[in-house]
Design goal:
mainly beta, Jelly Rolls, Rossmann fold, 6-stranded mixed β-sheet, 55 strands, 37% strand, globular
Length: 891
């Protein structure tokens, strides 16, 4: 590294300082470096004085005295003495040196010296004093001219010690002046006298998109929302000069002066870096909305914008869209629109994933805090909310000391759909855990969770260190994927600490799962409740929209046993458990998912009492009429004795885009079989179909057909997934059967019969056999088999796409011919690419006609314009095709 040190005084020792850290994503080892200044080695205090040593990914603060720097150009060399492939990152280097006072052809600024004894000090400059003046600039921009004593080759002045003053030695020609002066009329942001609940601060280039977001705030939640350009804030509240304090002052003005309902959320509509002035020459593209960095501890936190009446915590919800380009912004806004206005129903909205780091941290193999803390937090969640726990300590490392099976298990759960994905443990800006559970540089393509985006929370170090110009953090990367990854992230911008991390999370996560608070408010309320570590709390920020409701369905503990004895009910193996209940809202009708779960599995992990949710005992559906329902299940022999089981009913109301849960907890279970239990007379009945229910043994089907298996038994089917009692699929007498229990669901209002639907893998052409093995709830097995001929039927075909009439006025029909039965999606886009309508239907083989009424998703008539029609067809065996055409509306 080359560095210029003008006017260095060689008679006084210099000090070289550096901050270095091993990249934790490359493993952990002992780090060794040698440091040279102008070819001379800088000695260490160790046994080998030529080598500086530290261990692991902890911060190494290098600070050594040297006399090898010279006035002018210098070279610093850092030689890494490698014993592995680990990388070492350099944060900064700094040289402290004494500088001679030499006046040249430019301004010279000198700080007032500190002294043990307050008083005056004489400054003597060499160089020409012709036409030279000295100005003292004190805090508050108090400026005064200092008397000089000059001769032909020097100048002298006297200043005070122990002040915050600076002295500028300059000639008139060296004084700075404005490059240009123009008249501008600042927009009066105080003119809005109405209520303002939400403010979106945007750069000029994103202003139109900010107005679109404000419209969605109004549509979704009826919020009084104002879009404000960052430049207008700077103009009125700081004379046009960029400063984060100006944004806070504006928010304070609104908070104290505008009427109820008061300001409660701030959305920062763009990225920002710590290099706002672009000294790095690469930060300008990321500098959209300023960051707020605390000068006393260098923590970057958007909290500081919202500290309106105190310095401990924000009083409003705050979130930032970490976007630098219009493409990134469009991605995040479409994810937001889809999440809030076109949500995908399902029990994923009631499911959490918890991942605890293992017990190994460098040489420390007893780091069990994360296991204990995750278990403690999980017990605070409402029992009706599912939580899947992964304890990394239970998994083995590979030859590289990583745990890829933990990573795979984590992604399997995420891709199944989760409301919240929570990690607690060690980490850095691009990796979860020293064992590489999730690495931003390699794992982003593993997300396959379309329409089920979770909130990503990491109680770890630097996961959301978003403000560096040279890299993107995990917290950013996960929210910038198109319909994948996370809908928002909450993590730390700097190195955080386990105890205060856990304290904050024990308020924050229950605020969403139990109290059902919106994201930003849930985090702010947690910080107000937990102010024992103000600095640590401030590191945790929202990257995403602060107004999102990332909450489980509306729930009520209104499911009751259908029995006369309701005081102390224990359900035993082979009993028929019956329940009734109602949803929290009135007038609901439809079908609810009815589920029952085993008692929790409780065990010890390194002396820590941990638990996991019990496996599923029943999965079916019941009829809901006027919000009321009845349902039940047969208690299997494989039940776990305990008092932590659960019965849960989930209903999605499509009209209101709202879901509801009615539950019963605790469900007390016993594996004891009572003497009067129902006898088991026969095994399950199994009927196998391929492709459709018209299948007969020996038929010809596609090479990747869908398997349908009708399974029934008067005592119900065992779906617990317990060892030896899974529903199994055997293809061509394979010695490795496929567990398919999760693909079975009971029929509507039945606890004795249901259907298993499973997409078979791609087969070779020819004759094949399959077997289904299933057990009833009393563990009596049954086997059914069939054979068939697989033949490649080729791709699906879609022809003769037509729109009539075209141009249309109020109504039209889209017609086409397809070669197969298929699920059909019709999307209508504006010419700018914005989707404005989606129609989903089923197409039959042959001619099809879809009516279109000329309206958008909200029922409004479309304006005269040209639109794009896109049709996608997908068969049950996975073959797909799409076609496009143009539609003109002219009235």
């Amino acid at each position: 590294y080359n560095i210029d040190l003008p006017d260095l005084d060689p008679g006084i020792m210099q000090r070289l300082e550096m901050n270095l850290r091993q990249d934790p994503s490359t493993g952990v080892s002992t780090n060794r470096i040698s440091v040279y200044v102008n070819g001379h080695i800088v000695l260490s205090s160790g046994t080998d004085t030529s080598v500086h040593t530290w261990y692991g990914s902890t911060l190494f603060k290098f600070s050594r005295d040297t006399g090898y720097f010279v006035a002018g150009k210098n070279k610093i060399t850092i030689r890494v003495l490698r014993n592995s492939s680990n990388n070492i990152n350099l944060d900064f280097y700094r040289v402290q040196y004494a500088r001679t006072l030499t006046k040249k052809n430019e301004q010279y600024m000198v700080n007032a010296l500190e002294s043990i004894n307050p008083g005056n000090i004489r400054y003597v400059f060499s160089g020409s004093a012709t036409d030279t003046s000295v100005y003292q600039v004190s805090p508050g921009n108090d400026i005064r001219r200092i008397n000089l004593v000059t001769d032909s080759e020097s100048l002298t002045f006297v200043g005070n010690t122990n002040t915050d003053s600076k002295y500028y030695v300059t000639r008139p020609s060296e004084l700075y002046g404005p490059a240009s002066v123009t008249v501008t009329q600042a927009k009066d942001l105080t003119a809005n006298k109405g209520p303002i609940e939400s403010i979106i601060v945007t750069p000029d280039e994103f202003a139109d998109k900010a107005e679109e977001l404000a419209d969605m705030y109004r549509q979704n939640w009826g919020m009084y929302t104002l879009v404000v350009r960052q430049s207008d804030i700077f103009d009125q509240f700081n004379g046009g000069y960029p400063d984060p304090m100006a944004i806070r002052q504006y928010l304070r003005y609104v908070y104290f002066n505008n009427p109820e309902p008061k300001l409660r959320s701030l959305t920062l509509f763009g990225m920002g870096t710590m290099d706002w002035r672009n000294y790095s020459r690469v930060a300008a593209g990321k500098n959209k909305v300023m960051i707020f960095q605390n000068p006393s501890n260098y923590i970057s936190s958007d909290d500081y914008f919202g500290m309106l009446t105190n310095t401990n915590h924000p009083e409003i919800a705050i979130g930032r869209y970490p976007v630098s380009t219009m493409t990134e912004l469009n991605t995040m806004m479409e994810n937001f629109r889809r999440y809030t206005q076109d949500p995908k129903p399902g029990l994923w909205r009631n499911s959490l994933l918890f991942l605890a780091d293992d017990n190994v941290n460098g040489t420390n193999t007893m780091d069990w805090q994360h296991t204990r803390d995750m278990q403690s937090l999980s017990m605070m969640i409402n029992p009706a909310v599912f939580n899947t726990k992964i304890f990394a300590a239970e998994w083995d490392t590979d030859e590289f000391l990583n745990k890829p099976r933990v990573r795979d298990e984590m992604f399997d759960e995420i891709n199944d759909g989760k409301l919240i994905w929570y990690y607690i443990g060690h980490g850095s800006f691009d990796v979860l855990g020293m064992q590489n559970y999730f690495t931003g540089s390699t794992d982003m393509s593993k997300f396959h969770n379309q329409d089920t985006l979770p909130l990503f929370i990491a109680a770890s170090c630097e996961i959301s260190a978003f403000d560096h110009w040279a890299y993107d953090s995990l917290g950013q990367k996960t929210v910038l994927l198109n319909n994948a990854g996370a809908i928002a992230s909450v993590a730390a911008t700097r190195k955080s600490f386990p105890d205060p991390n856990n304290d904050l999370m024990e308020y924050f996560i229950p605020n969403m799962t139990n109290s059902r608070l919106p994201l930003g408010l849930a985090l702010t309320a947690a910080k107000i409740s937990n102010t024992q570590s103000v600095e640590n709390d401030a590191m945790y920020i929202v990257l995403g929209d602060p107004n999102l409701y990332i909450v489980p369905p509306e729930r009520v503990a209104s499911t009751k046993p259908l029995t006369d004895n309701t005081k102390s009910i224990i359900y035993h193996s082979r009993q028929n458990a019956r329940f009734y209940g109602h949803m929290s809202a009135k007038g609901l009708n439809g079908e609810a998912l009815f589920s029952a779960f085993n008692s929790d599995l409780e065990y010890q992990l390194a002396g820590i009492a941990v638990s996991k949710k019990g496996n599923q005992l029943f999965k079916g559906s019941v009829t809901v009429k006027e919000s009321e329902f009845k349902g039940g299940f047969w208690v299997p022999d494989d039940v776990n004795t305990g008092n932590s089981g659960l019965v849960l009913n989930y209903l999605w109301d499509d009209a209101g885009k709202t879901d509801y849960i009615s539950y019963y907890h605790p469900l007390r279970l016993s594996d004891e079989v009572l003497p009067d239990s129902m006898p088991n007379d026969s095994p399950p009945e199994i009927d196998i179909y391929l492709g459709s229910y018209d299948f007969r043994t020996g038929d010809t089907v596609n090479i990747s057909p869908t398997l349908y298996a009708r399974i029934s038994d008067e005592n119900g089917i065992n779906i617990t997934g317990s060892a030896g009692h899974n529903i199994l699929l055997v293809i061509d007498n394979s010695l490795q059967p496929i567990p398919v229990t999760d693909y079975f669901a009971y029929d509507l209002d039945s606890n004795v019969s249901g259907t298993l639907i499973y997409q078979l893998p791609k087969l070779t052409e020819g004759i094949h056999t399959i077997q289904i093995i299933a057990f009833d709830n009393f563990n009596l097995p049954s086997v059914a088999s069939t054979h068939f001929i697989a033949k490649d039927s080729g791709p699906i075909d879609l022809q003769n796409l037509m729109i009539y009439p075209n141009p249309m006025k109020n109504e039209a029909h889209i017609t086409f011919i397809t070669s197969d039965n298929a699920d059909m999606t019709l999307d209508i886009f504006s010419m700018s690419g914005k989707r404005i309508r989606r129609i989903e239907t089923t197409a039959l083989q042959g001619f099809n006609k879809i009516p279109f009424d000329g309206r958008d998703e909200f029922g409004d008539r479309l304006a005269n314009n040209t639109y794009i029609i896109r049709i996608k067809a997908r068969t049950q065996d996975g073959r797909s095709i799409e076609a496009r055409d143009r539609l003109v509306i002219y009235k």
